[in-house]
Amino acid sequence: MPRMRADSRAKKLSGKETLSLMKRLLGRMFKSYGWQIALAIVCILLSSGASVAGNLFMGTILIDGFILPTIHGEPTSFLGIPMDLSTAIFVMIGVYSIGIITAYAYQVLVSIVGQGTQKKIRDELFSHMETLPLSYFDSRTHGDMMSVYTNDIDTLRELISRVMPAILQSLVTMVMAFVMMATLSWALLLVVIAFFFVILTFVLRTSKRSSRYFIGQQRGLGAVNGYIEEMTAGQKVIKVFNHEAATKEGFDVLNDNLCAQTTNAAKSSNIMGPVVNNLSNLQFVVLALVGALLIVGIDAGRIDPNVVNMNPGVIVSFLMLGRQFVMPINQIAMNINMVIMAMAGAQRIFEMMDAPSEKDEGYVLLVNALEDENGNPVESETRTGKWAWKHPHQDGTTTYTWLKGKINLYDVDFSYVPGKRILHNVTLYAEPGQKIAFVGPTGAGKTTITNLLNRFYDIDDGKIRFDDININKIKKSDLRRALGMVLQETNLFTDTVRENIRYGNPEATDEQVVEAAKLANADGFIRMLPNGYDTVLTGAGAGLSQGQRQLLSIARAACANPPALILDEATSSIDSRTEKLVAEGMDAIMKGRTVFVIAHRLSTIQDSDVIMVLEQGEIIERGNHESLLKQKGKYYTLYTGGQVTEE
Amino acid sequence: MSAEAALQQGTEKKEKARVLKNLAGYMKGAWTFAILAWVTVAAEVVCEVLIPYFSQFIINIINPGAEAIAQGYKVADHTGELFGMAGAMLGMAILSCTAGILAGVFSAIASARFGRNLRQAMYYKIQDFSFKNIDHFSTSSLITRMTTDVTNVQNSLQMILRMVVRSPFMMIFALVMASTISWQLALVFVGAIPFLAFVLFGVAIKVHPTFVRVFNAYDDLNASVQENLQGIRVVKSYAREEHETAKFGKVSQFIYKTFVKAERLLALNNPAMQLATYASMLVIAYFGSRMIIESGNAADGFNTGSLASLLTYVMQILMSLMMLSMSFVMIIIARNSAERIVEVLQEEPDLVSPANAVTEVADGSIDFEHVGFRYNKNSEKEVLHDINIHIPSGAMVGVIGATGSSKSTFVSLIARLYDVDQGSVKVGGKDVREYDLEVLRDAVAVVLQKNVLFTGTIRSNLLWGNPNATQEHLEKAAKLACADEFIERMQDKYDSPVEQGGTNFSGGQRQRLCIARALLKQPKVLILDDSTSAVDTKTDASIRHAFQTEIPDVTKLIVAQRVLSIKDCDLIVVLDQGEIAEMGTHQELMAKNGIYRETYDSQQKGGDFDAKDESR
Question: Is residue B428 within 8 Å of B553, Cβ to Cβ?
Answer without folding.
Answer: no
